[in-house]
Amino acid sequence: MKTARILHRSGGSNGTPQSRAVAILTLLLVLIPGCRSRGPSPSGAPASELTVSAAVSLKDAFREIAELYEARTGTKIHFNYGASGALQKQIESGAPADVFASAGAKQMDELASKGLIVPDTRTDFAGNSLVLIIPAKGPGPGSFSDLANPSVKKVAVGNPKTVPAGQYTEQTINKLKLLPQIQSKLIFAEDVRQVLDYVARDEVDAGVVYSSDALSAGDKVKLVARAPDDSHDPILYPIAVVRDSQQREAARKFIDLVLSAEGQAALVKHGFQAIK
Q: What pTM was estimated for this model as a whole?
């Protein structure tokens, strides 16, 4: 084999320890390219891949935006979806990410306070609204106040400790003074799409999700009420480049596309509110 001949010439009895070490290192780099660490792209060369950690509610819209980005840049995007709070903790623990897109300001604020994002790349890129949904076959509550009715036994909501939608839901429930009547009915989910699944599978009587999630479910659920805007903080989605990204230029270009007319149109198509 060619590899064997290289080793024989470099590592024969007349080779120096230094030459043998170089030969071994060369062989490892040839045979095991996956061991190379991910580093910055060569000057002027495009990044080959980009990792975007994003709130799971963005999944459908970001898939469409990623197709545009990959077609134009040749850079492959790998998505890591989850609850914004869980993604925040991953970044704090050193998990690889180039871009972070959160469903709430709180998670981005905490990363910013620890110096884990590039400050001048942070921007709000979308809005959303909070809605009450029920299983498609019904019947069910027709308003948030109906959640207090004895006929309603289970209400799925995001865990407010890690899920921004859960935090907005908690604010709404408190604002409408419903907590004492429905606290024992609450079923906490690990992200907003899990809430959606509980309702779509008719495992609960109702759930609270974003309007974009309700739209993504099609006829699997019924949207019956929208939370009053003054019952919770404004629902805004921030995005930023992660400090440890080795692909900052490519990450900035992704954010630029999200903010572009095409990116905003994709977000609106999937139920989000455009940022003016």
A: 0.78
Signed CA dihedral, 150, 152, 157, 159: sign only: positive
Measured at the CA of 254, the angle between CA 52 and CA 53, to 5 degrees, comes to: 10
Distance, CA of 34 to CA of 46 (rounded, Å): 19
Does residue 41 fall inside a structural domain? no
Domain that holds residue 29: 2-34
Read off the CATH number of the domain in which 188 is found.
3.40.190.10
Closest C-alpha to 98, from 218, 244, 196, 239: 244
Task: Let me know whether 175 and 223 are in one domain.
Answer: yes
Q: In the structure encoding, which two tokens stand for residue 215, read together?
A: 């739209």
| pLDDT level of residue 31 (50, 70, 90 thresholds) | very low
pLDDT recorded at residue 35: 36
Q: Report d(CA 140, CA 131) in Å as an integer.
A: 14
At residue 43 the predicted structure's pLDDT band, cuts being 50, 70 and 90, is very low
